[in-house]
């Protein structure tokens, strides 16, 4: 059976782009690894945040639409995005969220402690401590590598048909079904980060796309050949999978599973240093070749954003 290593990236819809940058870069201490545009809507940013290298399994991406209508988190979506931090780091994050006046709660499931909170536009996030996963060497605005977010811990999926989503994760994506409690089924992928997926077994009500909701979750394929194997496998299981789409920093295929969640399978290669030196990733607006001739017009449409320190 094929096995994905876990989450490649998660993409969400938010509001004001500077608020988005301030929260994920200055508060959470992630690196803005790529500033580009939505390839299907080039008048909108596509912002990528992750660890220092922009590694698969660490990247959260955003389509920021100022004034966008608030969405509703529910069935057919990633309900909660989980970050993993080093063992012993949650106390730092409690103090940090408190210092920024960000409300949070403490929760427990499957024997782990979680710190749950929201971003400025309503996206539901949480942090969990785990030993596995390499340290993130990026340091910014008071977040040092010993406490920095390592990447995704995983996600909680809200499905319109939980058992069918669970079947897909286990029998197609190759995750191991490891536990069930409290209305959740837990799965584990082969990688060290982005590898723990919980599926909610009861309905949360129908989700509605908008600001503060996840657009899709992407799973890892090693390379183009591996992705083509995934494409064939998914199609053979009866899912309507797309052709390969070039997303500049990875290639992507998409399908909507039976619980209505949009799944992507993305390649680990070529990565985010393909058009910028690693030490300068995220510093300038990068456009795919088809839009470079329209750079001046695109830059006029986009609201300027900057990575800045805030206290």
| C-alpha Rg (nearest Å) | 18 Å
Show unreliable segments. none
If helices are DSSP runs of H or I spanning 4 or more residues, what is the number of helices? Answer: 6
Average pLDDT reading: 97
What's the CATH architecture?
Roll
Number of domains: 1
The counted number of beta strands is 16
Largest sheet: 8 strands, mixed
- Approximately what portion of the residues adopt beta-strand conformation? 35-45%
Helix content: 10-25%
Class inferred from helices and paired strands: alpha+beta
Indicate the CATH topology. Answer: 2,3-Dihydroxybiphenyl 1,2-Dioxygenase, domain 1
**What is the topology, as strand order, of the major beta sheet?**
2-3-4-1-13-16-15-14
**What distance lies between the first and last C-alpha atoms, to the nearest angstrom?**
49 Å
In N-to-C order, the SSE pattern is EHEEEEHEEEEHEEEEHEEEHH
- Apparent shape: globular
Could you walk me through the main structural features you see in this protein, from its secondary elements to its overall organization?
- With 311 residues, the chain is α+β, with helices and mostly antiparallel strands.
- The protein is built from 6 helices and 16 strands.
- The chain has helices at 17-27, 90-99, 162-171, 224-236, 289-292, 295-301; strands at 7-14, 31-38, 41-50, 59-64, 77-85, 104-109, 112-118, 124-129, 151-158, 176-181, 184-188, 196-200, 213-221, 245-246, 250-256, 262-270.
- The strands form 2 sheets. The protein has an 8-stranded mixed sheet. Strands 6-7-8-5-9-12-11-10 form an 8-stranded mixed sheet, with helices on one face.
- It is globular, with a radius of gyration of 18 Å.
- Keywords: Dioxygenase, Oxidoreductase.
- InterPro entries: Extradiol_RC_dioxygenase (IPR052537), Glyas_Bleomycin-R_OHBP_Dase (IPR029068), Glyas_Fos-R_dOase_dom (IPR004360), VOC_core (IPR037523).
- It holds the Pfam family Glyoxalase.
């Amino acid at each position: 059976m094929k096995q994905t290593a876990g989450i490649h990236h998660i993409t969400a819809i938010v509001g004001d782009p500077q608020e988005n940058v301030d929260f994920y870069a200055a508060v959470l201490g992630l690196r803005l690894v790529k500033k580009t545009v939505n390839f299907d809507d080039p008048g909108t940013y596509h912002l990528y945040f992750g660890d220092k290298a922009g590694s698969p399994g660490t990247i959260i991406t955003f389509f920021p639409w100022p004034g966008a209508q608030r969405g509703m988190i529910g069935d057919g979506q990633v309900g909660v995005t989980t970050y993993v931090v080093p063992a012993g780091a949650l106390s730092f994050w409690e103090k940090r969220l408190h210092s920024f006046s960000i409300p949070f709660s403490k929760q427990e499931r499957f024997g782990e402690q979680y710190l749950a909170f929201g971003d400025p536009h309503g996206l539901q996030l949480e942090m969990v401590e785990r030993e596995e996963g390499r340290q993130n060497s990026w340091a910014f605005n008071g977040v040092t590598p010993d406490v920095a977010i390592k990447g995704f811990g995983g996600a909680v999926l809200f499905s319109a048909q939980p058992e069918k989503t669970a079947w897909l994760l286990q029998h197609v994506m190759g995750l191991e079904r490891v536990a069930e409690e409290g209305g959740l089924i837990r799965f584990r992928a082969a990688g060290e980060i982005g590898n723990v997926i919980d599926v909610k077994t009861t309905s949360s009500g129908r989700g509605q796309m908008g600001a503060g909701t996840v657009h899709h979750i992407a799973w890892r394929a090693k390379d183009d050949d591996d992705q083509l194997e995934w494409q064939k496998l998914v199609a053979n299981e009866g899912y309507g999978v797309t052709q390969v789409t070039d997303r500049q920093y990875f290639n992507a295929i998409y399908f909507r599973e039976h619980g209505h969640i949009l799944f992507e399978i993305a390649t680990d290669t070529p990565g985010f240093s393909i058009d910028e030196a690693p030490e300068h990733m995220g510093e300038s607006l990068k456009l795919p070749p088809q839009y470079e001739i329209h750079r001046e017009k695109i830059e006029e449409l986009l609201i300027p954003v900057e990575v800045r320190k805030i206290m």
